[in-house]
Amino acid sequence: MAPNNPEAPASLLDKQADWLANYQPGLRVIEQGVVVSIGDGISWIKGLPSAAIEDILIFADGSRGMVFDLNRDRIGAILLYETDALTSGTTVHLSKHPLSIPVGDEFLGRIIDPLGMPLDGLPPPNVAGRENMEKESPAIIARDFVHNPLYTGIKIIDTLIPIGKGQRQLIVGDEGLGRSSIAIDTVINQKDQNVVCIYVLIGQKRSAVVSTLEILRTHEAFDYTVCVVAEASALPGLQYIAPFAGCALAEYWMAQGRDTLIIYDDLSTHARTYRELSLLLRRPPGREAYPGDIFFVHSRLLERSTRLNAENGGGSMTALPIVETQQGEIAAYIPTNLISITDGQIYLDDDLFVSGFRPAIDITKSVSRIGGNAQHPSISHQAGQMKLDYLQFLELESFTRFGQRLEASMEARIKRGRLLREILKQDRLAPLGSLFQLAWLTAFNEGLFNQAEPKDIAGYLELIDQGVRHSALTLDSSLEQWRSGVSDWLNISSKPPA
To answer: Of these residues, 130, 369, 428, 483, which one is catalytic?
Structure first.
């Protein structure tokens, strides 16, 4: 109360008088529980008979928890925030509020934990809105078809496994094959594309978290990105709610009609955290000791990613969940669950990685169920021809291992396929634009690379990149214009494919 404001005391007295005048005595019931035991990120509580699953608990010492399991005589809760003073005998109350996170444009460029608290050393953003972490996915009648492309900047993905805004595309592969690199490249490529990005890091080592954040900062991606971090040392409860916190942030911008991209890195760690919490709370285990509802946990998360129709704002949330395999076993429990939920997968193969083909994407095991609907018609037309050539090459190449003599036409196809494989190689942190994709596709389909050697491909692609940067051509330009432009950049006459 400011001492130089003489009206303040009178105003306060008036409020007190109004409160006393309108006070009505009545029965007030307050439930109070008591902590029985605590450890490993969970707490057992007696009391609170009206508690329900996912209710938020407030402990007397300031800790926070969420009801996770209900028994006849006690409650199992996961801890979301824990103080050093929390011990058995601490009293507990229900908050009567669902789990939520503050939202707003002020979070762009920030690093936060799943509760919305800053981890970057800056003060908390001053935002007024909040979004519930648990929400129903949009109804079918509120959704629209996925038809607008979301470019990753990676040649093999944008041409052969296209992703659309509102799609859920799984990235699957063993550890160390570049799964996170694909996600980071995609985020970097959204610069100046009016796409808000949310990068969720779940249960990763601090060194990996710092590396990811530094890459995003170096490439100026923080201007349109918010990072939700629950590192390996965080409470298991925070790791569990991390993807739901990121999803709530993305839904806030999607409801405003904006396009969003969310990365879940990764859901294998999330599943293991959920299994850990469930076993500690003595839930019955299922396959591979995972609880029976692990499929529901991930499906209710990923089903919230969609494209809304115009009546509901027209926003979109594109999800790129990442899942880890062991020794390439794509048929394991969690990968197969996520494959059945998502709209396609990008599979990274260890043999391709070792052979030097990077990104090590196995096109025979990768698929996008949206397909050409998420591509510009010009790119879709050119990519269709190229994909057929590449698949035929992969089939023919297997026969060359037996040392058989091939016809001249077969040898020409194999040479053309090897050139294509060289074209599809790409360094990480070097995303490429859609015009470049259409340019090299046109050059390849028109046979402009037929006389080249694999060692010459990098130089040709550099000429194409320079030509695109200084050209007035657009995706809507005619094939004749693109054919003429690419021929001029390469200084090669158009030659039909052999």
So the answer is: 369
